Amino acid sequence: MRLFPLPLLSHVRGLVLRTPSPRMYAVPSLAFTNSTVSHSDQSKEGNFDDVKSLELNEVGVLRVLTTMRDDPYLALSFLKRIEGNGGLPSVSAYAAVIRIVCSWSLDEKLSCLFVGMIRKGEEKCGFSVVDLLNVIGDAEEDEKLCFLLLSRVSSALVKAYVEIEMFDEAIELFRGIEELGWDADAYTYVVVVNALFRKGDSEGVEKFLRKLVSLETRKHCVFYMDLIEGLCGNEMSRVGYILLKPLREANILVDESDLAVAYGRVIRGLCNEMKLEEAERALLEMEECGIDPDVCVYSAIIEGHRKNMCFSKALRFFNNRKDLQGKRIINPVIASSILQCCCQMGEFSEALDRFVDFRNMNIPLDRFCYNVAFDALIKLGKVDKAIELFREMTCEGISPDVVNYTTLIGGCCLHGRCVEALDLIIEMDKEGKPPDIVTFNVLAGGFARNAADASDILKLMEDRGVKPSSVTHNMVIQGLIVAGKIKEAEALYQEHNKSGGNVAGIVKGYCEAGRLDKAFERFIKEEFPLPKSVYFTLFTSLCAAKDKNHIDKAQKVVERMWELGVEPGKSMYGKLIGAWCRVSDVGKAEKFLKAMKRREITPDLFTYTILIKTCCRLNKLEQADDFFRDMKKRGIKPDVVTYTVLAKNNPKIDKDMKACDVKPDVFYYTTMINTYYRLNNENKACALVQEMKKGGIVPDVVTYTALIDNYYRLNNKKRASDIFQEMKRRRILPDVVTYTVLLNHNPELDKKKEMKALGIKRDVHYYTVLIHHKCKIGEVEEAKRIFQEMKESGVKPDFVSCTALIAGCLRNGYVFDADKFLQEMRENGIEPPTETASKSVVLHTKSKPKRFVSRQRSKKPILRSSGEVQSSLLIS
DNA sequence: CTAGGGTTAG
Question: Where does this protein have coiled-coil stretches (predicted)?
């Protein structure tokens, strides 16, 4: 942790204003005679080489140092040089240098000096730190000056101790300073808090802070502002946050704007440290005190969530803030964060809608916002619109920069519009914003993947003096493979792979082209370590695949990295185990886990949680328990997520969780409550609802939906609809699942309009309930129509929905339709059902593919074969 | 280098 520099503090204290010239090693030989040195002599000649031979006596050294009063760097190097030559500067020499350095406010240098001294040790120095302080003190006659000097020196010493992690010494020394009534500045306090913090002494921190705001030791407002700045600038925003409340209550920050600044700083600090929950809490607190947060606070929180990959949290925050909806205070920074969130979630149309909204609200938008917007258009395949928007931006007076152009050029290339891409390059030249290497790389790669001649672009680059790099070649090679031009890719590879960096393009190209086996084949042949991104791309593609064969290969990638001594990223282990879990092969996962342990790699919380979840899903409860014990044994503390997974099968785990001081949240309670209802223990479930509310945890849509579902299951329609009303009263909007539950228990009530009004799209679950119901009451035509409607609205049928329809057709004698849909299902390679919801189906469909094949081959009348299918499908 | 949790359908 770096404590320096603290620019604001230095500034406030009026430091660093006088900066001596950084002249370091030009040193006069005259210094070694006992005569006085004049400044004009200093640069004349020589160095300190004669120090050893000269046997400078103490008086001599001191006298020389006196002449260096105006040049602290010179004094420092003089001292260093004496030491370097095996000399032993006296305590007085040190004292003299320190006084010089101090008078120039070079606090950092001072600390360095102390660090060196402490490292060297008392023995080797010939004096102790206390000796030194005494000498320094004695040499200053003016009491007031002495006071100041010692304060500053001890502060630097405290800092030095912290820097070499001698926390106790630092704290002790600081207490000494306090007792003597010396004046330590805010910066020193920051250092001491840092020491306590790093020692893990949270009680000490609190005590320290309490004292700091107590009446006897109260300081000036500026001090506290500096303190907060220092804490937040050094990753101790939490401490800064703790400080706010007492400061406010003791009315120390009288000026409201100071309080606003302090809160703002703490919130921004918390966001930087990714402590978003606390940041939001601080924001609430701030508002409760009647302080208006400024726009930077909002953008910090939104951007913090985004960087944390919590996109929906960012959006939720934005949507729920009234003042942000009041449009008044949205600035381009917030706007671009929000747009980017949408894009990173893959919601490109949403991003565009919001962009348009922003624009209609007359919010000033900058080229960052525009860039996200036309990138979104490109991702949606609307290149023309993207170009249009690009032009509009220019009309709005924002002239595009190289990045804007590059985005657009990449977009053109991605959609096969190389000519336009090239036109844009020409335009860039005309506008005096010549393309850089990134632009050219994008263009060359884009040409290649569109089967255009990328070598033209390479030539163009050369002519321009932009030298193609290995990145360029990789992008072209990758593009060629994507375009299916394997031979050309290989040729280019042969030509440029001298440094060995271009397999990347080959492997990535095959990955992108979906030819994972080919990619793996090339990869495994390489004898030498590859760039990390290659391992990662290949590994990720293999992991994402559905069959075990590919996951096996993903594992080989990791093993290869081990062999070659390339450190796989931490996340790769967890991802691989996650992949094995996804295909329900806990055996393989466990085997790999053992290999990890042999390498002394401890699986992390995520990994254990995935394993436990999978075991629970597969009903291997003892094994889940084994993992649970194992993680505890290894000192990995299960968190609320782990407990949620366990609670699904074993609600009694609640005791253990509370014993471990893990706080339940709304997810956890929802699971628990649901589990107890399923176990027919309504009392316990109700008790939990109360406990949750008492604990200040607010039930959300999911909780309410679960409650509604469970009361319908208990045949208590009244209670179910009461809960639905309560939910509405609390302004918690139902979602598609809520409506699915309602529909499932009241199949006649398709609340199509109501949903539309709320902007809720019907999903595959919802349609399935509809289809199933229509089939059940014999309205197969209607079911077919709904199935069609579903497809037309862009909702992909899945295994369950198809099965429902086919079964319904068969049951009602629509044999031809059943066959038609069956075939359609096969053609679409319908994904197998996922997760627990369809566990029973998985079990029953294991033998299904065979039957499908035999049916196809036999070409016998549909009736018979459908009968076969029927037997496997109609198990309820 | 975006890995883990809650509610719904046959």
Answer: none
